[in-house]
Amino acid sequence: MAANNTITFYDLTMAHGATTSPFVWATKYALKHKGFDIDVVPGGFTGILERTGGKTERLPAIVDDGKWVLDSWGIVEYLDATYPDRPMLIPHESVAALTKALDAWWWPTAVGPWMRCFCADYRDLCFEHDKDYVTTSREKMLGMKLEDMQAGREERLPQISAAIEPLRMALREHQWLGGSSPNYADYRILGPILFLASVGKVPSLAEDDPLRDWIERCRDLFGGLGRHPGLINLYGLKVPEGGPEPYMRESWRGGIYKRNTGPASTRAETEHITKKD
Amino acid sequence: MAANNTITFYDLTMAHGATTSPFVWATKYALKHKGFDIDVVPGGFTGILERTGGKTERLPAIVDDGKWVLDSWGIVEYLDATYPDRPMLIPHESVAALTKALDAWWWPTAVGPWMRCFCADYRDLCFEHDKDYVTTSREKMLGMKLEDMQAGREERLPQISAAIEPLRMALREHQWLGGSSPNYADYRILGPILFLASVGKVPSLAEDDPLRDWIERCRDLFGGLGRHPGLINLYGLKVPEGGPEPYMRESWRGGIYKRNTGPASTRAETEHITKKD
Fold first, then answer.
1. Does residue A194 lie in a domain region?
2. Which UniProt keywords apply (chains A, B) (predicted)?
3. Is B55 in contact with A101 (Cβ distance < 8 A)?
4. Which of B56, B140, B273 shows the shortest C-beta gap to A141?
5. Is the CB of B258 less than 8 angstroms away from the CB of A71?
6. With b meaning 16 or more CB within 10 Å and e meaning fewer, what string describes A154-167?
């Protein structure tokens, strides 16, 4: 299969040519992780059914030597099952279960809120022929005008940034969500961040966000797969007067790490909590 | 090492004799997962330094043939490194990274809020000789009287239950967080739920919570390790008039699963979002 090591990949982009959909981004990384060259079929939001010869209304979709495979998760399962001799996207079934839990946190906490912060930018940056579809479909999904939904994002963006601290805690202890090398967990969480870089006219993350290192290393992978010239700067989030810190700056360290190394390591806390006023 | 396949385990319990600390629970499961018998040194919150001969102020702690190992994460690393021929607690380094991300979500979302809902029950249920320490230390940590912190929990418990939906989504697709068999990710997330069963005088989860199946299967592991007779019923959460659903009952399915199987699977959504009013 995969003649000439190449798989056909149906892309979904803005007018600037960079991929938009978080799912399509994750799939592009997944194909490269498996070592394939990709034959990109470009396009926007309208005409997917026609472009794919009636095979699907949604992307991602790939064609491997004539075999159509749909759905971001369907493609991951197909690639690992069909090519188990290549680097695994999901190296252990526990990685699948935990990625699903993390993704189920990530969407309501960050991805959905970010989409609501950039829904009008998104419409403005898509192809001319997509604007009517994007406006209608997103206003139906959101239940209001895109401009009204996007309004007030200056207040919301720092809150979203503060809420994604669990990623910072994990990536403080590990180089990748995959451990010492990236896997589909990284690509799945990265997808929505590259969506932001595709559609966000204002930055979503602080200049010195600790996640920046991981994000930029992800963008460098596979010959700079995440460095399309159409992408917009992610960093430089402005926090309004009185707004929350966009990430935890305190020296206090939460999360899992080896903290109790004996009485000397806990003495200060013990003294604090047992002192009677 | 581990003469007679036995490791010494310093427990931390309420007066009813069941383990309390989430970390100590997770460690007890970890030792059993590795196939060890455990020689339990019982005890409460005060006198840990004396009980352990000055080795530690905090539990869990284990002694393996004279070698002291401290800290819940330190013990996991020790067990997998020392006994790699036994079932792995962390079968892939990505499981470590993802468990850390999930745990960093779990604590501020559920464990901390649950602890604030049960802090006075917790004091009431501990050993008599622990009550002064527990009251002082927890009031220091919380910055208020235990009774005041616990007040109003009827309103908060359904919100906490609703917020843990990411676990339900992952466990809808997989039998365990470990995949087809449990690993440390399961035990780490389970620990705080067994803490609830140890200290909560009112139920935290709905009678028909979808998590119940996984929780009860976890409790059955290793000869019913999570079935100490001192433990309190977890199910039967009462939601006050107008309170949130304690879990998502709608037929809408979020999360990662193979959803696009072709145009028939997306047609209803497409018609909805493209219909002009």
1. yes
2. Transferase
3. no
4. B273
5. yes
6. eebbbebbebbbbb
